[in-house]
Amino acid sequence: MKLDDDDFTLLGLPRRHAVDRAALNAAWRRLQGEVHPDRFAAQGAAAQRVAMQWAVRVNEAYQRLKDPLARAAYLCELRGAAVDAERNTAMPTSFLMQQMQWREALEDAADLAAVEALDAEVAATERALLADVERRLDTEDDAAAAAADVRALMFVNRFRQDIERRLDTLDPTR
Question: At what angle do helices 93-108 and 143-170 cross, to 10 degrees?
Answer without folding.
Answer: 10
